[in-house]
TrEMBL record:
Residues 6-250 form the ABC transporter domain. Keywords: ATP-binding, Nucleotide-binding, Transport. The keyword Transport applies. The lineage of its organism: Bacteria, Pseudomonadati, Thermodesulfobacteriota, Desulfomonilia, Desulfomonilales. GO terms for molecular function: ATP binding; ATP hydrolysis activity. This is Amino acid/amide ABC transporter ATP-binding protein 1, HAAT family. GO terms for cellular component: plasma membrane. The keyword Transport applies.
Amino acid sequence: MAQPILSTAGVIKSFDGLVAVNDITYEVFPGQTSGIMGPNGAGKSTFFNLLTGYYRPQKGRVIYQGRDITHMHSHERVILGIARTFQLVSVFDSMTVLENMMLARVRYGRDYSSKLRFFFKNVHHRELEEECLQALDVLGIAEKAKIKTSDMSYGEKRELEIALALSLQPQVLLLDEPFAGLSLVDIAHISKVINRIKGQFAIVIIEHKISKLMDLVDTLCVINEGRLICQGDPQQVICDPEVSACYWGKEEMKCY
Ligand SMILES: Nc1ncnc2c1ncn2[C@@H]1O[C@H](COP(=O)(O)OP(=O)(O)OP(=O)(O)O)[C@@H](O)[C@H]1O
């Protein structure tokens, strides 16, 4: 049976007595696209931050490829292959798409030891540029390489963020609300992008737009009040009475 690439065992994270993540055990498998949903303040982002290493749990463990990474820093996890995007777009507006890509690779990429060579040797610079152009090509946006990020729409910047994360050659890609603030047209475009890269590595997506999330994921889980209350097949999860109750009180949620 396949082993999970990333998992947690009983992780707990509290802030001054408020238990934001309460004893969550979770598994992500190679090539699988998994969704995480839950009401506002449920603990989704805090859980993501435990996976990426931004927070350390007070209890429990985070395991990646069979290795305990609970106390590992975020940048070390990136080098191991765990990349993420953020709820709010974070790219450098004064730089071009390609420059943003190259900076991400040098700043966070696996080729840390070659940082100095990047600055002083043109050969390595050209190699890096070529690799970044290839990563843009995977998303079909290589023609935007020379565009300044300040001239891009919000949707295009979201796409660039995914490209930045892809340039780190992840084994696990964590997408934090990829549709937040996007128009329906942009959501459709980003969905296409995610569908294009799906299956090559594990993807975990936090998203409030449930119907859009359902179209993308192989498996779904729901966090409510810090607890993972349901996980498994997306259709079954969405029809689960406890999930309906956490969104709609006692009322049944409309099933797809
Ligand atoms: N740094 C922090 N300090 C104190 N409390 C925090 C902190 N971060 C999160 N919390 C609290 O922990 C709980 C879970 O927050 P979290 O942001 O993880 O929820 P969420 O499910 O991601 O919500 P949303 O969907 O609104 O982004 C909330 O009650 C929140 O106020």
